[in-house]
Amino acid sequence: MQKIEIKAEQFFELLKLKDTSMWAIFSQMMDGNEKEIIFLDNEDKILFNYILPSTPEKLEEDRKEFSKQFSDKLTNPN
Predict the structure, then answer these.
(1) What is the side-by-side order of every strand in the sheet holding 2-7?
(2) What pTM, to 2 d.p., does this model score?
(3) 20 to 30 Å CA-CA from 43: which of 7, 13, 49, 66?
(4) How far apart (Å, rounded) are the C-alpha atoms in residues 27 and 78?
(5) Under a CB-based contact definition with an 8 Å cutoff, are residues 46 and 39 in contact?
(6) 26-57: string of b/e by CB count within 10 Å (b at 16+)?
(7) How far apart are CA 20 and CA 34, in angstroms?
(8) Cα separation, 6 vs 35, whole angstroms
(9) What percent of the chain has pLDDT over 90?
(10) pLDDT digits (tens, 9 = 90+) for 25-63
(11) What pairing do the DSSP bridges indicate for beta strands 35-40 and 46-52?
């Protein structure tokens, strides 16, 4: 599995500048093979990782699940 390291702060700043979502970027990275995307802080410490799926359908499932979890955390911040 290919591993891709991304500096989280710069990545999210770029998304804001380009006015696009991370899911749009992820869909452009898809090539039929799973990839591990590793988000790093400015000191190269791992913040979190995401396994980019090999199909658009699975990416859409992940997007929906992420949105649900994010919404739940906003309404129940514990």
Answers:
(1) 2-7, 35-40, 46-52
(2) 0.79
(3) 66
(4) 31
(5) yes
(6) beeebeeeebebbbbeeeeeeeeebebbeeee
(7) 22
(8) 12
(9) 78
(10) 999 999 999 999 999 999 999 999 999 999 999 999 999
(11) antiparallel
